[in-house]
Amino acid sequence: MQSTVHDRQHIQIVIETALLVATEPLGLHDLKKLFAEELRADLLNEVLEAIQQAWRGRGVELVKLSSGWRFRARLEFQPYLDRLNPEKPPRYSRAVMETLAIIAYKGPLTRGEIEEIRGVTVSTQIVKTLEERNWIEIVGYRETPGRPGLYATTKAFLDDMGLKSRTELPALAELGQLVVPEAEPAQ
Q1: Spatial contact of 31 and 15, defined as CB atoms under 8 Å apart
Q2: Which residues, in sequence order, are CB contacts of 66 under 8 Å at separation 6+?
Q3: What's the rounded Cα separation, in Å, for the pair 130 and 52?
């Protein structure tokens, strides 16, 4: 499809509108569905870049995540938005965060390999917590006796962390602020 300036503006408005009202990131495949005629991927990427430019310097930005494009509040404005919803985000135990970090940085791996790295048994509750949050999933099975599942992080995990891929993971030291200190044993 050859696009005139008018057509391109219309395409940009339609895509911008869809991204603003979407509850989940939208990939190029999803964005192509907005139009009856076939749009080239390079045209869509140009339009997405134009939208990013148009929103530059505002409180909201268009970002590309692992599963697609989404608008989000710029990080420097998050303290203001937190006042609207004073609930604290969920905090996770050290065991949950260690397990997640091992899977994110070293995965895919089996539960046994995770336990070997952590030096302790990984409880079923830890795995269940991460699966319920949709941050990990079994992506295959090791070709060894018992065929243990291989755990890896999901696109939802990357999206929740604001990342396009695992290569953008922060240094492990930065994860400490999310960890709840272990409760001291009662005496």
Answers
A1: yes
A2: 155, 158, 159, 163, 164, 165
A3: 32
CA 45 to chain CA mean position, Å: 20
Separation of alpha carbons 114 and 98, rounded Å: 9
Predicted TM-score (pTM) of the model is 0.64
The string of pLDDT tens digits covering residues 110-152 is 999 999 999 999 999 999 999 999 999 999 999 999 999 999 9
Residue 35: DSSP 8-state? -
Write out pLDDT tens, residues 28-70.
999 999 998 888 889 999 999 999 999 999 999 999 998 899 9
Question: Beta-carbon neighbour count of residue 126 at 10 Å?
Answer: 22
The tokens for 141 are 């099975």
Here the tokens at position 58 are 């505002």
Inter-axis angle of helices 124-132 and 94-106, nearest 10: 70
